[in-house]
Amino acid sequence: PVTDGSRELHSLCAQLEFLLQFDLKEKRSFFGQRKDYWDFLCQGLARCRQEHEGIHFVTSLDKLKTPVGRGRAFLRYCLVHQQLAESLQLCLLDPESLCEWYYARSPFLSPKRRAEILVSLYELDCVTFHLTL
């Protein structure tokens, strides 16, 4: 199993975060706080009208104060519960939402690249992650 001490885990999480932040449009909340991929994930999963346990879990953690921290916790939660590919796929279903959140260079806006990313993420479902949440 992959644990918190694994170098590969840190590399994987950094690459996932880079991918989710790449060409992300700058958006601000009502109070001026910069939105991040966490907000994109929340909105995308909310559109599916499903309450995602990962979102519920992360929002219950009082120590997490920033969207980036919440996003990182969500990625870890999804890796442990083998839900990363499915969760991201749900967020990528709506082309209008993708255009609202990402500029043209984002790989999420290319159907071919999006499919390649999802295939790779589904392969992670075979990996056991034992991470501290």
TrEMBL record:
Metal-binding found in the keyword field: yes
PROSITE patterns per UniProt: RUN (PS50826)
UniProt keywords, alphabetically: Autophagy, Coiled coil, Cytoplasmic vesicle, Lysosome, Metal-binding, Zinc, Zinc-finger
Annotated ranges, domain RUN: 3-133
GO MF term (any one): zinc ion binding
Places the protein is found: Cytoplasmic vesicle, Autophagosome; Lysosome
Signal peptide: none
GO biological process, one term: autophagy
GO CC annotation, single: late endosome
Domain of life (superkingdom): Eukaryota
Pfam families the record matches: RUN
Function: ARL8 effector that promotes the coupling of endolysosomes to dynein-dynactin for retrograde transport along microtubules. Acts by binding both GTP-bound ARL8 and dynein-dynactin. In nonneuronal cells, promotes concentration of endolysosomes in the juxtanuclear area. In hippocampal neurons, drives retrograde transport of endolysosomes from the axon to the soma. Positive regulator of macroautophagy in dendritic cells. Increases autophagic flux, probably by stimulating both autophagosome formation and facilitating tethering with lysosomes.
Protein's name according to its UniProt entry: RUN and FYVE domain-containing protein 4
Gene: Rufy4_0
